[in-house]
Amino acid sequence: MDGEFGGNLKQQLKKLFDESLKLTVSDEHGLEPLVAASDAKFRKLGDYQCNNVMGIWSILKPKCSQFNGAPALGQAIVSNLPTSELVKSCSVTGPGFINVVLSAEYMAKSIENMLINGIDTWAPTTSVKRVVVDFCSPNIAKEMHVGHLRSTIIGDTIARMLEYSKVEVLRRNHVGDWGTQFGMLIEYLFEELPGSDNEVVTTIGELQLLYRKSKRKFDHDPVFKEKAQHAVVRLQSGDPVYVKTWAKICEISRTEANKVLQRLQVKLEEKGESFYKPYIGNMIEELNNKGLVQESDGARVIFIKDFKTPLMLVKSDGGFTYSTTDMAALWYRLNEEKAEWIIYVTDAGQKEHFDLFFKAARKAGWLPDNDKTYPKVNHVDFGLVSGEDKKRFRTRAADVVRLIDLLDEAKTRSKAALIERGKDKEWTLEELDQTAEAVGYGALKFADLKNNRSTNYTFSFDQMLCDKGKTAVYLLYAHARICSIIRKSGKDMNELKNTGKLALDHVEERALGLHLLQFSETVEEASTKLLPHLLCEYLYELSEHFSKFYSNCQVNGSTEETSRLLLCEATAIVMRKCFHVLGITPVYKL
Ligand code: ARG
Fold first, then answer.
1. Which of 16, 262, 446, 525 could disulfide-link 472, Cβ–Cβ 3.0 to 4.6 Å?
2. If you measure from the C-alpha of residue 339 to the centroid of ligand 1, how many angstroms do you get, rounded to a whole number?
């Protein structure tokens, strides 16, 4: 027995191969076996492969006479493999691939163990303790657009994957609440609506109108522009009249953003740009003492090799920039919050900004030179969303997309589809509403997460709400169907979990079981590579495996009923965990 039923097959196998390799080639250090689930074309030979024996052999060949080729080395590695319940058999094929067939008994026991002790026993393990995920982060008074929706959905899933792996995640909303737009907004209010004590602007719609009007004036009226710039300075120096109006404007935006976040069930803590203001002075001084800050046309900048424009710390008028705040925020996150990994989720358009400021932080010695060791930073970028006409994304009603309208429409459409299927007659109004919400928002999230995040995608309600193909609707159906199979059996699953035995005798049972056991390593891979679509892919394949199993293996009323019901239950549990990590609410009937 290996002592524990860790869900991560890959890690367990890697450990076995590590030990064998040490025994087989004891004087060679630093060799790493590469273990991976077998590609489709090798699956007949085994479930996993160690596929770098040829590479290891090419290192050994010049100095080793013990083996006469990679296949022989492979054989030796196989014979030195420590005995383990996990492995049924191994074979060496072709130029030296080692194929591993897992023991179905062991697999079955691992799944039984998860059923008894819960899916958290399959959580990936990591040495990282605290991570900042900086996501959503809209700009106050400006439109919270579909890019912020992508950031919110992707960032939330990354946070959830890490939380499942028992990492403490600081979810940060780095709202743009300190930019130059405030000068123009406040100045406009003071000029056009004097004495109103800013009670005229109370809703987000009014605020956006104010933004547009003041921006027009700012762009066309040089006198106003100058006044607006002064207003920023007054605000930044803490003038109470300006600060009061600023706070009011922030509050309106915050209320609107919170509505979206609440609907999406995304938790976030706001630490906006203004929060880091007190840290800017010391931060610049530290960089200055390190000799990194230079004068350039009256501004204070850091030059970075290979970048045409330097990182602007202080503008010639004394103001700070987006980059200044990001440097101060990074300092704070590393030194005050003691985060080991800081993940920024924004559109790909900001790549250059992050490249530049990460390089500056490396130059300052805040981060190690390589991007493998901690503390680590990553820019999680994503592509654009376009409308079905391939143009800029807009809704029918307005020329900019209000996120709340988007959510409303997703819900309305999914509700209409449920009513069309007669669910309004079967369910209570509350059930109908909750299901419509779960399906509608789930569809929206999944449609975003399923694509490799770097690619652009086309937003289509029809596609995302389709009940076939890679959609949340299809997956939620698959889950509800499993629940109904279990319900129809009339069995008490809690009792069955503790008394029943699970077997993986049929090929489809075995294939499904193996896929279930690969959940943990999939989450691990998706969180290490910061690629949520890998988990979507996994979930889709899981439902495909289940379909194959269900159409080949009778469950209710068969002699294998207990075992197969347990397999159904395990599938439903893993599906629910996937939904949870993707921020989707599962439904039990559809
Ligand atoms: N407010 C920015 C925007 O809307 C995103 C902020 C991202 N986070 C950061 N630390 N720069 O584009």
1. 446
2. 19
How far, in Å, from the CA of 561 to the mean position of ligand 1? 53
Residue with tokens 């987006």: 322
Instruction: Give 270's contacts (C-beta < 8 A, 6+ positions apart).
Output: 172, 173, 175, 254
Atom index in ligand 1 nearest the CA of residue 350 equals 12
CA-based nearest residue to 585, from 406, 405, 433 = 433
174 lines ligand 1 (CB under 6 A): yes
Measured from the Cα of 354, ligand 1's closest atom is: 11
Tell me the CA–centroid distance for residue 138 and ligand 1, in Å. Answer: 7
Residue recorded with tokens 């770097």: 454
| 302 touches 313 (CB < 8 A) | yes
Residues 6+ positions from 262 with CB-CB distance below 8 Å: none
Give yes or no for residue 3 having a pLDDT over 50. Answer: no
Residue nearest to atom 8 of ligand 1 (CA): 174
The per-residue DSSP string of 5-62 comes to --S-HHHHHHHHHHHHHHHHTTT--S----EEEPPGGGTTT-SEEE--HHHHHHHHGG
Say if ligand 1 is within 6 A of residue 346 CB.
Answer: yes
User: Pairing state of beta strands 294-296 and 299-302?
Assistant: antiparallel
Which tokens is 203 given? Answer: 């809703």
Q: What is the pLDDT of residues 219-257, one digit of tens each?
A: 999 999 999 989 988 898 889 999 999 999 999 999 989
Contacts of 466 (CB under 8 A, 6+ apart): 473, 474
Among positive and negative, which fits the CA dihedral 526, 270, 442, 455?
Answer: negative
The residue nearest atom 3 of ligand 1, judged by CA position, is 138
| Pair 173, 136: CB distance under 8 Å | yes
Tell me the pLDDT tens digit for each residue of 356-368. 999 999 999 999 9
Which residues are CB-neighbours of 64 under 8 A, at least 6 positions away? 25
- What is the ipTM, given to two decimal places? 0.99
Give the position, in ligand 1's atom list, of the atom nearest the Cα of 353: 11
Distance of CA 346 from the midpoint of ligand 1 (Å): 7
Kindly report each contact of residues 409-416 with a partner whose C-beta sits within 8 Å and lies 24 or more positions away, as own/partner: 409/461, 410/440, 410/441, 410/443, 410/444, 410/461, 410/464, 410/465, 411/436, 411/437, 411/440, 411/441, 412/436, 412/440, 413/440, 413/461, 413/465, 414/439, 414/440, 414/443, 414/465, 414/473, 415/440
Q: What angle do CA 243, 244, 247 make, to 5 degrees?
A: 85
Per-residue pLDDT of 482-529, as tens digits, reads 999 999 999 999 999 999 999 999 999 999 999 999 999 999 999 999
